[in-house]
Amino acid sequence: MEIRLKSARRYVEEIPTRLRVVGVWGGELTEGGQRLATREQITQMMEELKFRGDFGETLLLPVSASGGNEPEFVMLFGLGAKKRGVSLETVRKAGAKLVAAITKLGFKEAVTETFLAEKFGKKEASYALAEGAILGAYEFKKYKSDPEVKRLRLWLARSSGPAVDRAEIVAEAVNYARDLVNEPPNVLTPAELAERARELGRETGLQVMVWDERQIQQEGMGAFYGVAQGSANPPRFIQITYKPRGKPSRVLAYVGKGLTFDTGGYSLKPSESMTTMKSDMAGAAAVMGAMRAIARIGPNAEVRAYIAAAENMVSGSAYRVSDVLKSLSGKTIEVMNTDAEGRLTLADALTYADREGAEAIVELSTLTGACVVALGQGIAGLFATDDRLGKEVQEAALRAGEQVWPLPLEEDYRELLKSTTADLKNVSGARHGGAIMAGLFLSEFTEKPLVHLDIAGPAYTTNPHSLGPAGGTGFGVRTLVEMVAPGIAEE
Prior knowledge:
Blueprint: E1 2-7, E2 19-25, E3 28-29, H1 31-34, H2 39-49, E4 58-63, E5 72-78, H3 88-104, E6 109-113, H4 117-120, H5 122-136, E7 151-157, H6 161-182, H7 190-204, E8 207-211, H8 213-218, H9 222-228, E9 236-242, E10 251-262, H10 271-274, H11 282-297, E11 302-312, E12 324-326, E13 332-334, H12 342-355, E14 360-365, H13 369-375, E15 380-384, H14 387-400, E16 404-406, E17 424-425, H15 434-443, E18 450-454, E19 460-461, E20 471-472, H16 477-484
Parallel strand pairs: 1-7, 2-5, 2-6, 6-7, 10-11, 10-14, 13-17, 14-18, 15-16
Antiparallel strand pairs: 2-3, 4-5, 8-9, 9-11, 12-13, 15-18, 19-20
Helix pairs in contact: 3-5, 5-6, 6-11, 9-12, 11-16, 14-16
């Protein structure tokens, strides 16, 4: 769907469109509805039709036209009950549901009040509503032979222009990440992901550098290359840098897992588990999406992104169980499971980010099924080697509307990663604590403050969700942007 948002300082009734949308909260018309000349007529029809305004419930009413031959309509949009737990996420989800409801009825233009602005403030409500509308309008129809493209122009009455502008930047970056995740793996190879990064650099002015397989080997990234060596599609190491105009307030590194397809290697996945493995680069997609938004917002922090892009395939040259790989850090790793490949690629990326001078590192990866078992498909696990950085990321995620939950890096478990053959094993061999063990393994490869976000649950969904369709969700983009560019621009 192609959606255009138009911010307006005017009230709903002052913008000439055939469809006006007002909220119903706690069974009553919100502020926008109270100003309508037809409010008494609307209230009476609500009572007659027993419309309660449950969240997402809609009621389309014809009202007296103000002029001309075309009838006018008011859509009542339910915002639920006035109860504890109502938050800006309610407004964000309302934006997504509203877009679907309007386009289903065939309208190509509408005006909506900015829901619950009286409760949360105009800027905050404008941002959440606009972001939800753009995320909810997302579709991936690139490979459909005859896709139907719906178009909608949506006016946000009494809204904050700067807040809507920022929401558009961030939401479009999320959709950019979704596009990357939804690409089929025969298209989005490591080389193609690197080319998309170059295109991003040309579009935004970001600095982009890409290493091919020879450079990766020459630099000593043995853990990364060990995973990649079994594929006919060679690996790429992608570096993207944003620098502010003045002296940066801080230097952060964002590292994203970039497995463009994961078979599990010789520790082969079952076929049903492979169907979503094009999404194993969702961490890389989130990092690239965040860099896209950061370049446009222009914060004062310097941000460096690193992606070790590879495929984990089965062939005569693929790495095996019991192989020993030498990482960029110099530590050797005994491979106990070739399906624990992401942490091997990330090990070298983390070491490189550390050596390049990052003050702190935030890493995102679809790393373990154990984290999905622990937290479900809607929540990412947060593992921090530094409490202060962990709290900063958690608070950024809360403001951004993405759910993360802190889990411990239990030091006593570290002994389970020791190998009798090499310095470390890539898995412990124990059935318990898999997500924690993965986080502990990653922490071996940097001395800098590190937050590892295991996004295996929320990065990809096989069913439609409250902010979009099935497929890549773009999870993590909003949190990463919020970390370095917090808040909504002042009017």
